[in-house]
Amino acid sequence: MTNRRTYWSIDKGESLNRWGLAAAHEQYFPGAARPMPDAVDYRFINGWVDTGDLPCREALRELLGRREIAVPDGLVFPEVYLGGDDPRVDFSTFRFRPTLVTRWLRCSLFSDEAQTITFTVETCGGVHIWLNGTKVLQLDHYQRNESTVQPVSFDVCAGDNDILVFLEDLHERDTSCYLLMTLVKGSNLKAGIELDLDEQYAKEIERTLDGLRTDKVFYHEEMVRIVADYLPQVPVKVRLDTGSHPSETVTMNVLLDGMKMDRDIAFTVDQQFSVADLFDSTGLKAGCVSLRFIVEVDKTCFSRTLGTTLLSPPQSMHMPELAQRKLAALQHMLVTGKDEPARALAALAQNKNLELAERIIQKALVPVHERHDCADFWILPLIWMYRSYAGTLLADDVWEQIREAILGFRYWLDEPGDDVMWFWSENHVLCFHVAQYLAGSLFPDEKFSNSGKTGREHKEQAFLRLQRWFDSVDSHGLAEWNSAAYYPIDFLGLFTLMVNADDAEMSQRARGLIDQIFIMVALHTINGVCAGSQGRVYEKELLAGPVTELGSIAAVAFGGDWYPGYDRVSALLALSDYEPPKAACELLQVQQGQHIYAKYTQGLDHNAKVTLWKSPSVQLSTVSDYKTGIKGHQQHFLDVQTNAHAMARFWINHPGDMKVWGGSRPSYWAGNAVHPRVAQYKNMGFMIFDHRAFPEVINFTHIFAPKLVCDEFVVEHNWLFARTGSALIGIFASSELQPLEHGLYAGYEWRVHGPQSAWVVMVAEMDEYESLADFQQACRSRGATFDAQANTVSIQHDDGAIQLSYQQGLTLNGELQAFAPLTVVPNVALNDGELKPWTHMNY
């Protein structure tokens, strides 16, 4: 074993985020199947739900009481973990089945003298630490996604001190798995990794990987290239991992797709390096993909993962008639798309490509039988196809397999299970209830093997549950408002119910809610991009422009550009007789010289107050007064989208994670570490961030502003102005905007540092101004100011003096502007007219 170590200094307040990493050990860990209490109250929220211990975690707790963790013989650490800007050692990810993941990590501490040092250790799982062979900490927390912090003090000797860490967590779908080890006492220390290579070379590798970035954030049928912000003194050979790809039985695409290619891609970064071609994106599937870069030296592996967006040419859905668009979508699905069961349903409906249908069905049956999380999404098309085509088109044994899957599925908490299927969010509750209702309808006299109930009992139970779900949504709206990721899941359940329910009232309730969702989609869609504030969002939707499943649905429903591979619900829409309300088509595109203003609420007890201002070229959308000042999850508060470019999208957030394209919730761009105070008055949006109560969170807010796709772009001190086509955007920040000079988002990101910050966003049409400079002058003349002591941001609007107070809310000329109307039905005004329910508008 080598004694060569590479060291980095570590000071108080800094964390150990460079480690030698052993290969992870993964174990399927289900526990004993049992029913669970049905505690779903149909008052849906976004974020963490305390479900209590599932069987897998009960089994883990039983294991903890009887096991001893000893250091294994022959541990090797072939991989180097480099944390970069993230102080955590982060392995957060998504697993569809209960999986116990164990890792061993190693580093060294060098001290100039013998001393007592103290770290704080934070994790959600279990951490054991050995110093020079002696265990100094055993922290068996294991509370799913709930962290604990514990100090640990130990005596180090002068010279090298070896630290060995056992890190373990039980992965139940989305899992916050990390170690944060922060120095709070100690001096003259260095942290290092034992490596069989020169110290300077190891640091050059780290700097090289840290400096890699794609030359663009978005690619349109062009070469994807890599550039380097750092050129090493010695050449570093880098390889792109082209073997990574998602499982073909993944039931929900919550993670980025990896790159899978049949050739090796490598390049060398040296002093003469300028740019390297990675691959031509022409013909590749549109969407967000991960790019993992690897440096291998002998048996040691360094790596870094980035993400980017590919925008291949879409299929045209500009036919004037909905029936034409439906037919075109179904025909496209026969030849291209993901292997999802809705695509098999489309093939059966057309009696074409039946081999494709059978192959997809066989893949779909695996996660349904194994009860992967999100299997409720996949069983719905299987039920639909069995109801419509059983005994025809495919071999009898295929239909028998589907029948067995339906009769053996776990439809609710009160049935035995050892899985980690999620029964608590509004979209899953709907899908489980629809599946149970329709399965019971199919087999009324059969006994279902998992529950022991008859189909008739299942149907009766599900009918009552569905009524509760619809009653809740009628009263509160949808907690996952505007979500490009989760509206499609709502549609999945609703379309399946609307088409297949044998109860006319139930079918009509589904149709009515589909109408209302399409109204909200139309309001927040511009030039094919479904945007706006959102109840839940991922970076892969924010940075994908039109390439989302919701965008695919909108293209078929309204006409536009359609991207194959995001067609799960498009298939169901195309197979149904559904037509969106005429009002939705009118609200989709604002006529020249006009604008619309919409206000309504969504979420529990009207807690999400949604406002939209939309003109022909630009839309501004916010959610107001949403749980201000608490730690956040995946909520997206303010969003600007223009029609000149699909990727001309602007938003502001408080990052929850420093790892770009990371798996945390909130992440770097999606969600907020601490919720801001937000308000909107017509075409002005206001945000005040205050995270003084949480000193541990990231200490800046930032804006995503895609300079490279704008026609004009100006940043001056604390103002940012942009023009894309005929859309004008003006943004005031409470202090000087700091550009990101290096890194993936250089040219797209500006930061405001400090525990308090305020932002004002204004949008307008070009025909109101002579030039961008004229718009700049008009914005500046409004006298935007931020009073940090009072925690207020103020500006002059044409209607009077506006002030947003972090404590009191929005005032106009000193009068509090209470949000109205408090209704889940979108109210819309044309120009400056009266707000009316969309059902009362004249189109």
Automatic annotation (TrEMBL):
<protein>
    <submittedName>
        <fullName>Uncharacterized protein</fullName>
    </submittedName>
</protein>
